[in-house]
Amino acid sequence: MEKGRENFLEAIVNAISPSGFEEEAVRVWADRAKKYADRVYTDYHGNAIAVLNEGKEPRVMLAGHIDEIGYMITYVDENGYLYFSTIGGVDPQIAQGQRIWIKGKDGSRILGVIGKKAIHLLDEEERKRVPKFKDMWIDIGANNRDEVFEKIEIGTCAVNAQIYERLFNGNVVARGFDDRVGSFIALESLIELSKIKGELSTSVYAVATVQEEVGLRGARTSAFAIDPHIGIAVDVTHTADQPGVEKKVIGDLKLGSGPIIARGPNISPKVFEKLVQTAKELNIPYQIEPEPYATGTDANVIQLTRSGVATGLVSVPNRYMHTPCEVVNLSDLDNIINLLASFVQRIKSKDEFILYNL
């Protein structure tokens, strides 16, 4: 991956961005978008939108959600211990013993730890139980409640204190690739298209959607406003190339084996076919993910916008989703960017995506 592109990826996944608190990551995204898009703006919901060729039809929307799972501070006791609830689907078996960053009043990151009774002090029944969040606490080293409130407000957010790092073979690890990597791909695809924008028959809207982890909310509002003819959601999906995951359940999906193109009722057959055709023409490796129901992604609400949108879903192979150590492969990201930019370049008319010619 080209260095400037990877620097952007690192910056966006290192930003604090749980649902409802996406501003830090949105600013990173928008700062890069302004160098390439014709217009960059945000809406009342907090979605960030970058546009090429505004006014042309068909309108193509490339969407990746920029929020992540996290925590919210709900109470502080007299001894300065903080209690919390979760934002999105946090695994209680992973949370204990983690270092976290809490968003301070002044925007700073305040380091804390999610405390845990030492194994030596657990009785036999306690060792068998999955911990509950209501029984967990955060320790920032404070002596009392007043000391906490000097820096932290009730209702502020927190995330696991993990950053972007490289592993072997082009694999990288970070907190929250789900789905800052999707918003990254949407914008990088627009950047590729900006090099040939005069040749495009379409307008292109790259969207960093908010609040996906709490109900696909930002994609619903941004798609309504944009009113796209074609919409591609970019998200992450599970792989079967790890211990304990069965291929017969999720398919033979692997890290480093290319974009994962979804197929099913949430997906326009015309979009699916054009994505696959584009991948074949360019010798881009790809994988197919069967999705027999509505997907739990932005594609679900994009498809149902207004009178309907020709929708696709392209996913990044991802190990260890919703943990502080999600793993993706850089070649997969480059291949998805190439696929989406080439797909959009090949669109000539919205009529291509009418499902049945009666």
Q: How would you state the average pLDDT, rounded? A: 96
Fraction of residues in β-strands: 15-25%
Could you say what the CATH architecture of the largest domain is? 3-Layer(aba) Sandwich
Could you name the ranges where pLDDT drops below 50 across 5 or more consecutive residues? Answer: none
Number of domains: 2
CATH topology of the largest domain: Aminopeptidase
- Tell me the Rg in angstroms: 21 Å
Give me the secondary-structure category: alpha+beta
Distance between the termini: 45 Å
Helical content (DSSP H or I, runs of 4+):
25-40%
Neighbour order of strands in the largest sheet: 1-2-12-3-13-16-14-15
- Say how many strands there are: 17
Fourth CATH level, the homologous superfamily of the largest domain: Zn peptidases
The ordered H/E elements are: HHEEEEEHEEHEHEEEHEHEHEHEHEEH
Largest sheet: 8 strands, mixed
SSE order and pairing:
Blueprint: H1 3-14, H2 23-33, E1 39-42, E2 48-52, E3 59-65, E4 70-76, E5 82-87, H3 92-95, E6 99-103, E7 109-114, H4 124-128, E8 138-139, H5 145-149, E9 157-160, E10 165-166, E11 171-174, H6 177-194, E12 203-209, H7 217-226, E13 230-238, H8 247-250, E14 260-263, H9 269-281, E15 287-290, H10 298-303, E16 310-318, E17 326-329, H11 330-345
Parallel strand pairs: 3-12, 3-13, 13-16, 14-15
Antiparallel strand pairs: 1-2, 2-12, 4-5, 4-9, 6-7, 6-9, 7-8, 10-11, 11-17, 14-16
Helix pairs in contact: 1-2, 1-6, 6-11, 9-11
